[in-house]
Write a structure and sequence with these properties.
By secondary structure, the protein is an alpha+beta fold. Helix content is 21%, strand content 29%. It folds into three domains: 3-52, RNA-binding S4 domain (Structural Genomics Hypothetical 15.5 Kd Protein In mrcA-pckA Intergenic Region, Chain A); 62-124 and 209-232, Alpha-Beta Plaits, CATH 3.30.70; 128-206, Alpha-Beta Plaits (2-Layer Sandwich). The strands form three sheets. Strands 5, 6, 7, 8, 11, 12, 13, 14 and 15 form a nine-stranded mixed sheet that branches. A four-stranded antiparallel sheet has the order 2-1-3-4, with no helix packed on it. A two-stranded antiparallel ribbon has the order 9-10. The longest helix has 9 residues, at 15-23. The radius of gyration is 23 Å and the shape is elongated. The two termini are 22 Å apart. The chain binds uracil. The site of uracil has 8 residues, from helix 5.
Length: 233
């Protein structure tokens, strides 16, 4: 990270103030005077006016939560609604990676690791997210094929999706649908577009990471292997 952003994030001053300190030759990195724009990491020893900066490196935490209904996937809510962060007991400043609708349940990762956040939500990451969906109506093969190939939404065609039928009976159908985009209310809008409004929606997987047996509102820490896996995506 650039030194001005890095020191600003530690509360040293604004980025501009840091730039000025650099210009004035008041900052050293690993014993060397530096020029503006130098990049640093937590491993570098930074001195300002000859005094070492103490970095309180926050421990990184990673939780996998089964989000219940009527819980917001945000760090806070100005309307006082319950958020995914409220459900997790920890002292770090955590936030969810990506979003699930207020009325969608299932797998959501909550962390204080901004780098993992950027990787997982980046559109280029193209990670499949798998949903269990119950819809009104008996869905036809033709409609499922449309969903697989891409349907037209008001923000453009959807990318190919993986759609498998679980059950179809008396005015209802159950499906698994995997998509690799993260548009707003995408699964609901895809199913609306083929006239099968969603009754329930639950996220069951992110890539190969499954929700597992957690009950609604339960959470657990990710294992080191799971964290590595998410970084590899
Ligand atoms: N698609 C939706 O429609 N809602 C979600 O919460 C996630 C994906």
């Amino acid at each position: 990270m650039r030194i001005n952003k890095y020191l600003a994030s530690l509360g040293v001053g604004s980025r501009r103030a840091v730039d000025k300190m650099v210009e004035e030759g008041r900052i050293k990195v690993n014993g060397e005077m530096i020029t503006a724009g130098v990049k640093v990491t937590d491993e570098d020893i930074i001195e300002i006016n000859g005094k070492k900066i103490k970095k309180e490196v926050e421990k990184k935490v990673y939780y996998l939560l089964n989000k219940p209904l009527e819980v917001l996937s945000a760090a806070s809510d100005d309307r006082g609604r319950k958020t995914v962060v409220d459900l997790i007991k920890c002292k770090e400043r955590i936030f969810p990676i990506g979003r699930l609708d207020y009325n969608t349940t299932g797998l959501i990762i909550v962390t204080n690791d901004g780098e993992l956040f950027n990787r997982v939500i980046h559109p280029r990451a193209e990670i499949y997210k798998e949903y269990y969906v119950k819809v009104f109506g008996e869905i036809s093969e033709e409609s499922m094929e449309k969903l697989r190939n891409g349907v037209k939404l008001d923000d453009g065609y959807t990318l190919p999706a993986i759609v498998t039928l679980i059950n179809r009976e008396k005015g209802k159908s159950e499906l698994n649908i995997s998509i690799r985009e993260g548009r707003n209310r995408q699964v609901r809008r895809m199913l609306d577009s083929v006239n099968h409004p969603v009754i329930t929606l639950k996220r069951e997987k992110i890539g190969k990471l499954p929700l597992g047996k957690l009950k609604l509102g339960e959470y657990r820490e990710l294992t080191q292997d799971e964290i590595k896996y998410l970084y590899s995506l």
